[in-house]
Amino acid sequence: MRIAFLLFVLLLAANGNAAIFSEEETQIAMNAGRQSIINSTRAHYQHLQKTGIGLFYGVRSDYSPIKHSTEDDTWSDLERFSYIKTVLKKDFVTQLGSADAVDSYARSLVGMQESTPRSGDIQITGSLLWTLRHLRAAYASVGKEKRARQIVREVLKNDNGPNVLMKELQKDGWEAIYWNPDVAQPNETNGKLRQMHQRSVQEAQNGLYNNRSIFLQHTLVNYRPSSNSKTKKSLSSLKRLEHIPFWVGLANYGRQTFVGYLGRVSESHSSEMPISRMLIKESLFADWQGYTREKYLSGIIMIPPGAW
User: Fold this and answer.
1) 16 and 162 in one domain?
2) What is the mean pLDDT, run by run of 10 residues, along the chain of 308 residues?
3) Is residue 93 within 8 Å of residue 52, measured between CB atoms?
4) Concatenated DSSP letters for 247-281?
5) What's 63's DSSP letter?
6) First-to-last CA distance in the chain?
7) Cα 290-160-9 angle, rounded to 5 deg
8) Which of 251, 308, 253, 255 lies closest to 285, judged by CA?
């Protein structure tokens, strides 16, 4: 394995994409990314179960201070404070013991959302922000915080952030895997979306993705053929993915960004309020196709250098 890893590093260096992690660092970073997902998800839902409100809110939800159009009418922090007080569980309020204690607790959750840097125990998230959160944890675990901050800046200042993220990771030697549950017959009735997936197949056949901006090293395809499809089911690459502790991906040319670990997808939904059980959702990658009206049926997964 060590020889194969070193050959891979040399190959990437020749292409200008030197691996940022050593073999040991790859394992440390992957485990840290996985643990970050697990810890954040557990904390959110434990808090939701205990108090009635979780620890994250969607960037496009009513709770969010960020305007996405001129018609948006965002809440004030006082309105967030009032909202939290109405959703706190009655038995939890009783445990706090007094009106002052309830107010103090609600204020600690809200913090300041109207100005940056934002503070408060309930934090903003979304598909891209959720992904960057755990990527930062992975890089920080091996002392690469400076590079992580650089990636975050490049991604967030760009309208095409998800694809910029994939390119930045490829610069660091991450390997790109093209995924598609059925390359011959997408399980999609919308004509434009079906054409999008077919275009991605054509690109992948040339080892490329997104107008040649990403170079592919691997494929993970035909693991879930559509009904009535003649595609032969293949699970070998899927089983390989199930042993990788941490990865980052996008679907439908960046319409969704996600992280994953050991065969599971973890995604955050931008429109969900902090009381929603759909805000952070995990699914088996083998079954996953999103929860919106638009199915996620092709994309790429980036894995740390040497992990495949």
Assistant:
1) yes
2) 40 60 96 98 98 97 86 89 98 96 98 92 97 98 98 95 97 97 95 95 96 94 96 97 98 96 97 96 95 89 95
3) no
4) EEEEEGGGTEEEEEETTEEEEE-TT--TT-TTSEE
5) T
6) 10
7) 90
8) 251
**Residue-number span of the structural domain to which 84 is assigned:** 64-121
**Domain-located, residue 248:** yes
What was the pLDDT predicted at 107? 98
Distance of alpha carbon 131 from alpha carbon 37, whole angstroms: 9
What CA–CA distances, in Å, run from 20 to 13, 15, 300?
10, 14, 20
Contact 136, 128 (CB under 8 A): no
User: 52: which residues sit within 8 A by CB, 6+ positions away?
Assistant: 87, 88, 89, 92, 275
The rounded distance, in Å, linking the Cα atoms of 177 and 299 is 8
162/275 same-domain check:
yes
Helix spans in the chain (H) = 2-14, 23-51, 77-87, 90-96, 99-110, 127-140, 145-156, 161-171, 191-205, 236-241
* CA–CA dist 206, 106 (Å, integer): 54
Cα dihedral across residues 153, 157, 162, 163: positive or negative? negative
Residue 22 class from Cβ within 10 Å (0-12 exposed, 13-18 middle, 19+ buried)?
Answer: middle
* 71 and 196 share one domain: no
Q: Does residue 116 share a domain with residue 215?
A: no
Residue 88 in any domain: the answer is yes
Domain membership of residue 144 (yes or no) is no
pLDDT (0 to 100) of residue 12: 42
- My answer on whether 167 and 241 are in the same domain is yes
Residue with tokens 């805000």, as numbered in its chain: 279
